[in-house]
């Protein structure tokens, strides 16, 4: 007998995956140049040449037994040292290999964190709408309950006042994602500071830790002078989930980490719990080849400027057509208000013009759509005609 919950999860595609598959189908009918697929967050800029060359060098020069062998469960110590060194250079921190656990991307990092801290049934993980849809799956399959704080309009920053009402003695962690998928908003330093003040107060009140889990696959995708505040500097009980999927355009290679700062309460036990969670999930020894690639490339990024150009093209184009959009400071998503209350209907209408947009109901924000602009700039320009037709329908 199979597990019926797993059957449900596996037999139903996400709205994003449905759209992505639909896009492939209609591309055959209309030609790919006439389909405007804004559904999925697959990076559209290549991995830098120097990283690719380093990969080739590893494959040709490194001892294959080491390159394709197991590493320590938590990752090769020299790789973790290189990642820690890079973080210290950038954030003036003091991490070492002892603060890192290498993973197969941010999804695994998140699951490991949830499993390591959720101990009682119905321990709660609190997040803010809009949120990455997979959070519910990751939290629930690790025994917890996802609690969602409604969005703070119009800026979609953290609503600390509202959050206080959602924290209870069952709260195990607050989960944030900045730059945010799907809103593109970067939580400001002020927001992070007031969040930290509230969490310290609540930890004292309840007499147990409330962790801050920061999901940061888009950390480096920030535009202009905007920066993602580095949470361990503001709150000791932080766990950082990172991935090279977006910054180095390596989503298929499955490489990332969990960062566990030494300042955390009961650090040694927490690190052991992270290792235990990785072990119980089978997330040990992240891909060795891509671990080794990080030794020389931990701080490099693809050409992320391209996403800024896309942001400008799309935001300016859509607002000119009368659409109301949240101004994105980072990531590669634009959050747009729909011209009718039912986002599903709006997206169905958009399909008539071969525009594939994701209704944001599953992100916790009905009445909005997510537009993933990790696409060719040329496609954004060509899509404007279709967006115009869609806007005209609602005049
Ligand atoms: N968290 C967020 C907010 C994401 O957008 C994604 C992927 O799109 C992930 C986590 C998962 O990232 P990874 O591919 O590194 O597992």
Commentary on this structure:
There is one protein chain. The protein folds into 2 domains: 4-47 and 303-393, Alpha-Beta Complex (Aspartate Aminotransferase, domain 1); 68-297, 3-Layer(aba) Sandwich (Aspartate Aminotransferase, domain 2). The protein has 14 helices and 13 strands. It has helices spanning 4-11, 15-30, 49-61, 64-67, 77-91, 106-117, 134-141, 160-166, 189-206, 267-281, 288-297, 305-320, 343-351, 377-393; strands spanning 36-37, 100-103, 124-128, 145-149, 171-177, 211-215, 238-243, 256-259, 325-326, 333-337, 355-356, 358-359, 368-372. A hairpin with an 8-residue loop joins strand 12 and strand 13. The radius of gyration is 21 Å and the shape is globular. It binds pyridoxal-5'-phosphate (PLP). The site of pyridoxal-5'-phosphate has 13 residues, from helix 6.
The largest β sheet comes out as: 7 strands, mixed
Structural class: alpha/beta
Distance between the termini: 54 Å
The 3D shape can be described as globular
Number of strands: 13
Name the CATH homologous superfamily of the largest domain: Type I PLP-dependent aspartate aminotransferase-like (Major domain)
Percent strand: 5-15%
- The overall average pLDDT, rounded, is 96
Please identify the top-level CATH class of the largest domain: Alpha Beta
Total individual domains: 2
The helix fraction, in percent, is 40-55%
**How large is the radius of gyration?**
21 Å
| Uncertain residue ranges | none
Question: What ligand species are in this complex?
Answer: pyridoxal-5'-phosphate
* Tally of alpha and pi helices: 14
CATH topology value of the largest domain: Aspartate Aminotransferase, domain 2
Order of helices and strands: HHEHHHEHEHEHEHEEEHHHEEHEEEH
Task: Please tell me the CATH architecture of the largest domain by its name.
Answer: 3-Layer(aba) Sandwich
Sheet with most strands: strand arrangement: 2-8-7-6-5-3-4
């Amino acid at each position: 007998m199979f597990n019926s919950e797993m059957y449900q999860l596996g037999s139903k595609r996400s709205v994003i995956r449905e759209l992505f598959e639909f896009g492939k189908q209609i591309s055959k009918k209309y030609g790919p140049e006439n389909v405007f697929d804004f559904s999925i967050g697959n990076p559209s800029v290549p991995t830098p040449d120097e990283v690719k060359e380093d990969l080739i060098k590893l494959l040709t020069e490194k001892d294959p037994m080491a390159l394709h062998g197991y590493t320590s469960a938590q990752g090769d110590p020299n790789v973790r040292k290189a990642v820690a060194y890079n973080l210290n250079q950038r954030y003036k921190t003091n991490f070492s290999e002892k603060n890192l656990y290498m993973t197969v991307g941010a999804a695994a990092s998140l699951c490991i964190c949830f499993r390591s801290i959720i101990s009682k049934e119905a321990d709660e993980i609190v997040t803010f709408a809009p949120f990455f849809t997979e959070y519910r799956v990751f939290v629930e399959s690790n025994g917890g309950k996802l609690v969602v704080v409604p969005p703070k309009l119009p800026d979609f920053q953290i609503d600390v006042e509202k959050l206080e009402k959602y924290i209870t003695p069952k709260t195990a962690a607050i989960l944030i994602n900045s730059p945010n998928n799907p809103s593109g908003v970067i939580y400001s330093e002020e927001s992070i500071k007031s969040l930290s003040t509230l969490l310290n107060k609540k930890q004292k009140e309840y007499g147990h830790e409330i962790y801050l889990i920061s999901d940061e696959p888009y950390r480096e995708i920030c535009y202009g002078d905007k920066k993602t505040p580095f949470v361990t500097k503001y709150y000791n009980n932080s766990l950082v989930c990172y991935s090279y999927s977006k910054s180095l355009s390596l989503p298929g290679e499955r490489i990332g980490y969990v960062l566990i700062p030494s300042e955390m309460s009961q650090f040694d036990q927490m690190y052991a719990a992270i290792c235990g969670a990785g072990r119980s999930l089978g997330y040990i020894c992240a891909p060795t080849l891509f671990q080794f690639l990080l030794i020389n490339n931990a701080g490099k990024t693809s050409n992320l400027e391209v996403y800024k150009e896309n942001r400008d093209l799309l935001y300016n184009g859509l607002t000119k057509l009368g659409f109301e959009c949240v101004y994105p400071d980072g990531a590669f998503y634009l959050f747009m208000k729909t011209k009718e209350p039912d986002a599903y209907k709006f997206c169905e209408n958009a399909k008539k013009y071969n525009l594939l947009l994701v209704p944001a109901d599953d992100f916790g924000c009905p009445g909005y759509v997510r537009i993933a602009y990790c696409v060719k700039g040329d496609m954004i320009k060509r899509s404007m005609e279709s967006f115009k037709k869609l806007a005209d329908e609602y005049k």
